[in-house]
Design a protein that fits this description.
Helices cover 32% and strands 23% of the residues. With 328 residues, it is of the alpha/beta class. The protein has 2 domains: 234 residues, P-loop containing nucleotide triphosphate hydrolases (Rossmann fold); 73 residues, no CATH class. An 8-stranded mixed beta sheet has the order 6-7-8-3-9-10-12-11, sandwiched between helices. Bound molecules: adenosine-5'-triphosphate. Adenosine-5'-triphosphate binds next to helix 1. Belongs to the ABC transporter superfamily. It is a peripheral membrane protein. GO terms for molecular function: ATP binding; ATP hydrolysis activity. It is found in: Cell membrane.
Length: 328
């Protein structure tokens, strides 16, 4: 059995708000193995970004991990000193955010921003750092890399800026990259180019990636496995092909039905009625119960245990718990 790069066990995260403490993530457990691309999918507010922030130790000030373990190669990050975690964060785990301009320093040339990572985490000479930076810029598809090295972020297009952010994330050869909706801020053609770049990275670099998206089309093209999140919980997970061809959770079914090419021509675009409950609106039971057309009485009372469907495919839904229907 392979050792996972990252393994999260039973993690709960809560926010301290003015009128009390509210759970935002509950019982999050999953692993990422070497060379694997794991997607996290779910509507806005389901906890995708919070999960990645918890992994990197960059949660908002009013949020905390209450319970659980986040292990990087068998070391619990939550027990590490901040300095050690910071070292891992820069070199072994790195992050690509939605908006390239928020990740880049407007006052530094892009070449310098990439080579700074090498300066911090390696003993390479200045000349080698520059050479490596230029070759990384070429690898991420920036053809005039020598010229671009001395450019400032505002002199580049959005797609080029995101390529620089990807180069920064890759230059220290991390074991795991977390990409949080890395194409959302870009226009459609550039999105396709950046996705193609991720596909190539997966093929040639063999870096593990957590790819956060609300877009199944993107998940289907990039990921090996997918976690479906709803209201702070992972409600279904499995291989992408298995989940897309055989979704079990009514929420996953609804999301897949909303993919435009899953609909017949001329049909109105399907959307799941209702919305994700806010932290304060979440009650006991299954948080999807209010929106679920297959709801059983027990769904409002109790959150279901995980049920193994086939291989790595698991679902948390009362419909698949043995005896759930009979006991009602
Ligand atoms: N700083 C904060 N203070 C209070 N609640 C927050 C804060 N940040 C996030 N939340 C809440 O935590 C929950 C999860 O948010 P998160 O940003 O992880 O969702 P998401 O699935 O990444 O959504 P999106 O696709 O919009 O980025 C949401 O209910 C959100 O309102």
């Amino acid at each position: 059995m392979q050792t996972p790069i990252l393994s999260i066990e039973n993690m709960d995260v809560s926010f301290q708000l003015s009128d009390g403490k509210y759970k935002a993530l509950e019982d999050i457990s999953f692993s990422v193995f070497p060379d694997e691309v794991v997607g996290i999918v779910g509507e806005s507010g389901c906890g995708k970004s919070l999960t990645s922030q918890a992994i990197l130790g960059i949660l908002p000030k009013n949020a905390q991990v209450d319970h659980g373990e986040i292990a990087y190669k068998n070391n619990n990050l939550l027990e590490m000193k901040e300095n050690d975690w910071q070292e891992i964060r820069g070199s072994a785990l790195s992050m690509i955010f939605q908006e390239p301009m928020t990740a880049l320093n407007p006052l530094l040339t892009v070449g310098k921003q990439i080579s700074e990572v090498l300066k911090k985490h390696t003993n390479l000479s200045k000349k080698t750092r520059k050479q490596k930076t230029i070759s990384m810029m070429k690898e991420v598809g920036l053809s005039r890399a020598e010229e671009l090295y001395n450019s400032y972020p505002h002199q580049l297009s959005g797609g080029m800026q995101q390529r620089i952010v990807i180069a920064i994330a890759l230059i220290a050869e991390p074991d795991l990259i977390i990409a949080d909706e890395p194409t959302t801020a870009l226009d459609v053609t550039i999105q396709a180019q950046i996705l193609e770049l991720f596909r190539k990275l997966k093929q040639y670099r063999k870096t593990s990636i957590i790819f956060i998206s609300h877009d199944w089309g993107v998940i289907r093209h990039i990921c090996d496995r997918v976690l479906v999140m709803y209201a702070g919980r992972i409600v279904e997970q499995g291989s992408v092909t298995e989940i897309i061809s055989n979704p079990k959770h009514p929420y996953t079914k609804g999301l897949i039905q909303s993919i435009p090419d899953h609909q017949k021509k001329g049909e109105e675009l399907y959307t799941i009625a209702g919305k994700v409950p806010s932290l304060k609106e979440r009650k006991g039971g299954c948080p999807f119960a209010d929106r679920c057309s297959s709801r059983l009485d027990i769904c409002k009372q109790q959150f279901p245990e995980s049920v193994v469907m086939e291989g790595t495919h698991t679902v948390k839904c009362h419909l698949y718990l043995k005896g759930a229907v009979e006991t009602l």
